[in-house]
Write a structure and sequence with these properties.
The protein is an all-alpha fold. Helix 1 runs antiparallel to helix 5 and helix 4 runs antiparallel to helix 5. It starts with 11 loop residues before the first helix and ends with a helix.
Length: 137
C-alpha cells in the first residue's frame, strides 16, 4: 500500500502580493532621490526622511491593534490601497509637508502589510503549508 501525499498548493496570491509590497518598498527607497530632484533644502529633506523612517516601527507596533480591530484581510487591503494612493501621489507633490505626509502614509502602509499577511497565512494554511508559505515572505 503506497501512501500518497498531496502536494501543497503554490501560494501564487502570496507571491503576487509580496511582489507588490516589495515594489512599494523600492519606491520608498528612492525617496531621497525624489527629494534631491525637487531641490528640497537639507533640513526639510532630513525632516521628511526622519518622519518617514520613524513611522515604520510605530506602524509595526500598532499593526496588531489594527488587525485585531478591523481584521487581517481588511488591514491587508487597506494597506495596499493606502500604499498605492500615497506612492501614486508622491512624485506630484511639490510642497514638503504634503510630500512628507504621502511618504509617511506609504511607509505606514508598507509596514502594516507583513503582520497582516502573516496573520492571514496563519489562519488559512495547514501546519505543513505554513513553513512553505512563510518562507515566501
Amino acid at each position: 500500500m503506497t501512501e500518497t501525499t498531496a502536494k501543497p498548493n503554490f501560494p501564487l496570491a502570496l507571491i503576487v502580493s509580496s511582489f507588490v509590497n516589495k515594489c512599494g518598498n523600492l519606491g520608498l527607497a528612492l525617496l531621497p532621490m525624489l527629494l534631491i530632484e525637487k531641490n528640497f533644502p537639507v533640513g526639510t529633506s532630513s525632516l521628511i526622511m526622519g518622519a518617514t523612517k520613524a513611522a515604520g516601527p510605530i506602524a509595526i507596533f500598532f499593526s496588531g491593534n489594527v488587525i485585531g480591530y478591523v481584521g487581517s484581510m481588511t488591514a491587508l487591503i487597506s494597506s495596499f490601497l493606502l500604499s498605492a494612493l500615497a506612492l501614486g501621489l508622491l512624485p506630484f507633490m511639490s510642497q514638503g509637508i504634503f510630500l512628507g505626509l504621502a511618504a509617511v502614509g506609504a511607509n505606514v502602509a508598507n509596514n502594516i502589510y507583513n503582520p497582516a499577511v502573516r496573520t492571514l497565512i496563519k489562519e488559512s494554511s495547514t501546519p505543513k503549508q505554513l513553513t512553505i508559505t512563510l518562507a515566501w515572505l
